[in-house]
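input
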Amino acid sequence: MVNLVKTGIEGLDSILYGGIPEFNQIVLAGGPGSGKTLLSFEFLYRNAKMGNPGVFFALEETSKKVIENAKSAFSNFDDIDELIDKGLITINSEDPSVHIQQSEGSSSYEFGKVLSDIESTVSSAKANRVVIDSISLLGLLVNDPLAYRRSMLALVSNLRRLGVTSILTAELRTPERDKLVFKPEFFIFDGIIVMYQVGKEEKRKLAMEVIKMRGNNHSFVTTPYEITPKGFKIYAAESQSDFSY
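output
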């Protein structure tokens, strides 16, 4: 029997057929504005309210900005500060430009420092839920494709060794489903969820699709979603009769 980790996000556990298999490492990929960072933050928030400590590694924003953006998007989440004070949510921000500037001839060393920071913070927070936003920026540390793939394997291995269930965001070149191209390193991870735009021009809608989820069945239906003050609202297949693309 596979132990499933509930995301607590409305509709997401339904299309995941119960949740994310425990200790899986999931890539959440999408274009700009799709809500990757917000969805991954809500995953930590919902789990924190269930008593599961989580760590958010922000590589694109400061810790302060992550909190501000979450509070702005999810105005009904009035206990974010309380969960942070209790240690149920830890937000760690890194400036990848520092590593990039110092990484000439030592990319493996710099990537190793990032992995060390992740391990140290997870252990200190006793976290079992992790978000890394985003692995696309980690790619700037390692320019060689083969070396980058090895680095991603090391990242996945470390997260598994730490015994966490994680979501790692990644940038897609296009938000359009019919132009979707997956990077080879995505398939290193246990699961892939894609967020994109479907439809044309003014009729565009946000939608997501579970491409892969090792250890559990899942819906293959392209599922529309909205970002509301109460959190994400992901529509189950049976409520998609008015959704076309």
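quick obs: Residues 21 and 215 are 6 Å apart (CA to CA).
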